[in-house]
Amino acid sequence: MSPAGCSHVNGYKVDNWKQNLRVIYQCFVWSGTAETRRRKAKSCICHMCGAHLNRLHSCLYCVFFGCFTKKHIHEHAKNKRHNLAIDLLYGGIYCFVCQDYIYDKDMEQIAKEEQRKAWKLQGISFCFLSENLMLSKWGEKYTTWEPTKRELELLRHNPKRRKITTNCTIGLRGLINLGNTCFMNCIVQALTHTPLLRDFFLSDRHKCEMQSNSCLVCEMSQLFQEFYSGHRSPHIPFRLLHLVWTHARHLAGYEQQDAHEFLIAALDVLHRHCKGDTINDNGKKANNPNHCNCIIDQIFTGGLQSDVTCQVCHGVSTTIDPFWDISLDLPGSSTPFWPLSPGGDGSTVNGESHLSGSTTLTDCLRRFTRPEHLGSSAKIKCGGCHSYQESTKQLTMKKLPIVACFHLKRFEHSAKLRRKITTYVSFPLELDMTPFMASSKESRMNGQYQQTVDVLNNDNKYSLFAVVNHQGTLESGHYTSFIRQHKDQWFKCDDAIITKASIKDVLDSEGYLLFYHKQFLEYE
Amino acid sequence: MSKESRMRATINQKLTEMGERERLKELLRAKLTECGWKDQMKAHCKEVIKEKGFEHVTVEDLVVEITPKGRALVPDSVKKELLHRIRAFLAQHAT
C-alpha cells in the first residue's frame, strides 16, 4: 500500500488523461449539476447484471461499469487487460495488478479538486458535531486537517509541545484583584471557560477593524493566549480593566460593582467591537446591529417570546425580543413568589423533587414562564376589541442560546429597602429547557399534555459549566466562581487562588450567575 | 431482474437525480459520527491492520472484516430516521 502510487498507472497517464479523469469524476462519482446527476442515475448500473449497488466501479480505459463485489469489473479487467478502475462511491483508484487501491499524487489532486467543485455546486454546508463548528459555519465542508507548508515551517521552528491529558490544568489561571475587581475576575473566568468562545479565539477568528488600540475583542484574544500559555502565575488584567473603564463608564472606579452588570456590559462591548467578524452568506459585512452574526450573538443571544392575551376576545399579541440572560425573581423578595398561577403543573421536572421549603432553578423558571394576570389598572389596548381590556401576559423561550446565563436576582433595590436575598436555590448539573419553550406551551394549549419524548431531539438539553457566587452583604461582599474543566472536574476561582472543588461544593453554593452550555450543537 | 430489485433501481434513480441521495449520505455520515459508530469502526480497522501487518493489508481485507460488524452496529434510531426521510421524499415526489 504505497503512498507513492504504483508504476502501472503510467500506461494510463498519456495524452489527455487528466481531462478524461476529470470528466469521469464529474459525471459518475461526484455529480454536481442536475444534468450529470440525471446521467449518473440512468447509466451507473453494472453492464453485466444491471445492479447499482455492489460497489460499482468504472473502467478507466473504456466505458464499462461493473460490480466489484460480484467481481464483474474483475472479469472485464482480465478480458480486456484494462488494469485500472475507479470506485464510483468514493473515487478511489483500483489497480488490478497490485490488487489494491493505489494513491497516485496527481490523481489524488484531481480527485480533491473535483470533489470540492461538486460540493460547492450542491451548496452542502456540512454539519459536524465537534469543535469544528466555527469552521463549518463559514460554508466550507468539513475535511480533516492537513498542515500547509507555512504551518509545517512554524511547527519546525517552535519545537516545544504541550500535551493535554485528563488531569492537566491548561486554561486555568488566577487573576490578581486590582482593587475590588473580583466582579470582573469571576466573569473573565466564566468567559475563558466557555468552550465555543475559547475555540473562536484560539483559532484566531477575530479580524480587527478598529484603528485604535482599544478593541476589547483583541484584548479578549490576548487574555485567552495568557490563559492557555501554560503559565501558572496569576495574570494581572490591568489592560482589560482599563478598556472596560473606557467603554463602560458606569463601571469605572474602585468600588465594588455588580458582576451581572459587568457581564452584560462586557458582552455589549464585545458585540459592538466584533464588526469585522460579522459576515453573512453573501460575503458582505453585516451592517445591521439587530441581525448581527458575530460570535457573541451566535453564542449568547436567545429569543424571548411575550404573549399578551386579551381576556375578552382571547386574541394574542406576540413579540419576540433578544436576550443575553434570564433574570429570575426569588422567594423572599417583595414580589410574591408562590402560588403559581393557573397553567403551572406540579410535576417534577429535571429530576428535582420539590422538597417543601427548598426552591429549585426549575421553580424559578416555571414562575418566570407562568401566565400573569395584568391587573385592572394595567389594561392593554387590544387590537381585536379596539379598546382597553384586561389581559394576561406570558413569557416563553422562542429560541434558546447556545450558552444560557441565569441571573438570580439576589440584590433588592426597591423603594423600601436595599438588601441581599440569601435564599438557597438548588440548581442541577443538567437542565432540560423543553418545558419552558414556546413550542411546548403551544402543545400544552392544544391539549397534548403528554409530550412524547423525542429521543432524537436533544436540542434543549444543557450542562452547567460555570457558577458565580457572591459572599457577604450588599455593602461589602466578594465574588468567586466555580468553573468546569474536562467534562467533570471543577475548580474554584477566588481571584489569584485556584483550588480543586467537588461537584457537591458547586451544587451546594448559593448561586448568583449560572452558566449553562447546550449539550448538542446543530446547524441552522 | 426481480420486481424488488427493479423497484430499488427506480427509487435509487429518483434519489440520485434529485440530489437527495447526496443529502441523505451527508445526513447518515453526520448521524453515524455523532453516535460514535465512526470511531468504533476506526478502532476496529486499526485492530485489523495490526493483525494483518501494516505492509501487507489491503483495502479488501478491511472491507471484508468490518462490513458485517459495521452493518450490525448501526443504531436503530439512525435506520428509522433515514427510512423516514426516504419515505417522506418518495411521498413528496410520487409520480
Explain what the structure shows.
- The complex is a heterodimer of chains A (524) and B (95).
- The longest helix of chain A is centred in the first third of the chain and has 18 residues, at 105-122.
- In chain A, the strands form 6 sheets. In chain A, strands 8, 14, 18, 19, 20, 21, 22 and 23 form an 8-stranded mixed β-sheet that branches. Chain A has a 5-stranded antiparallel β-sheet with strand order 2-1-3-4-5, with helices on one face. A 4-stranded antiparallel β-sheet of chain A has the order 7-6-13-10, with helices on one face.
- Chain A has helices spanning 17-29, 34-43, 72-80, 105-122, 133-137, 149-157, 182-192, 195-202, 216-227, 238-247, 259-273, 295-300, 361-368, 438-445, 503-508; strands at residues 56-59, 65-67, 84-87, 93-95, 100-102, 302-310, 316-323, 326-328, 359-360, 372-374, 380-382, 387-389, 391-399, 403-408, 411-413, 418-420, 425-426, 430-432, 461-472, 477-485, 489-494, 497-501, 513-518.
- Chain A contains 15 helices and 23 strands.
- With 95 residues, chain B is an all-alpha fold.
- Chain B contains 5 helices and no strands.
- The A-B interface holds A 1, 31, 34, 37-38, 40-42, 44-45, 50-53, 92, 99-101, 122, 124, 126-129, 455-456 and B 1, 5, 8-9, 12-14, 16-19, 22-23, 26, 30, 33-34, 55, 57-60, 77, 81.
- Chain A: Residues 173-519 form the USP domain.
- Chain A: Its main location: nucleus.
- Chain A: Belongs to the peptidase C19 family. UBP8 subfamily.
